[in-house]
Amino acid sequence: MADRLGPARPDPGAAEAEVLRRFRSFAASALQRGTAAEPALDGLRANERRVLALLTAWSQAAAEVAGERGAAVSEALAPLLERFRNALRSTGTARRARGAPRGTRRAVMAAIDRVCDAFLAIDADSGRVVDANPAAGALLGVARDALLDVDASAFIEAAAQADWATALEAMTEGGEPRRFPLTLRDRSGVPIAVECTATRFATRDRTLALILARPR
């Protein structure tokens, strides 16, 4: 799991980690007993898209660990994953993204998904990823939804951290779009030199830094 997610893996105390623990218990009980009880989801509040990506990553990691029995493990987990996902959606346990109405947000996301450069929307105050496109996930070696709520600095080389902090601070203070070189690192720690364009986008609730990153 850690190898698959790298810096995007959830912290042990995070809500997403608790969801994974509960799914593991749910799946283990169902496989041992031959029948699945209702998932225990009381008290959970986690980002829906990130949780679904992490559940997929967990099931893929479980299949890899199983070796020759990987296909059987995937087949056994598939209906349990689907039931757990449906329970998350139907109970309102998962926390959905704030912002524009869902129809408008989907249209914007669809357009961003077609951009070939890596796109990251970063909360300029917290530094956490609010949204990303598939190209960003491919560049960093992580499913794009698994990047949500992750501190973006976890994917930036140590030597470039000061430049990154300066760029984010400039976004909170306003100003024109900025261009700057940056060195990222993928989930395995391999450095990636990119050219970034950062644009400020302010809403009533927060300020976002909209980042486009193109490998140099």
Quick overview:
The chain is of the alpha+beta class and 216 residues long. The chain has seven helices and seven strands.
Helical content (DSSP H or I, runs of 4+): 40-55%
CATH architecture field of the largest domain = 2-Layer Sandwich
Q: How far from one another are the termini? A: 30 Å
List the strand order in the largest sheet. 4-3-7-6-5
Overall average residue pLDDT: 86
**Count of individual domains:** 2
Calculate Rg over CA atoms. Answer: 19 Å
What's the CATH topology name of the largest domain?
A: Beta-Lactamase
What does this protein look like?
With 216 residues, this protein is α+β, with helices and mostly antiparallel strands. It has two domains: 2-95, no CATH class; 102-215, 2-Layer Sandwich (Beta-Lactamase). The protein is built from seven helices and seven strands, in the order ααβααβαββααβββ. The protein has helices spanning 2-5, 15-33, 48-65, 70-91, 102-113, 134-140, 161-172; strands at 46-47, 94-95, 118-123, 129-132, 178-185, 191-202, 207-215. The strands form two sheets. Strands 4-3-7-6-5 form a five-stranded antiparallel beta sheet. It has a two-stranded parallel ribbon with strand order 1-2. A hairpin with a 4-residue loop joins β6 (191-202) and β7 (207-215). α2 (15-33) packs across α3. The protein starts with a helix and ends with a strand. The relative contact order is 0.13. The model is unreliable at 97-101 (pLDDT under 50).
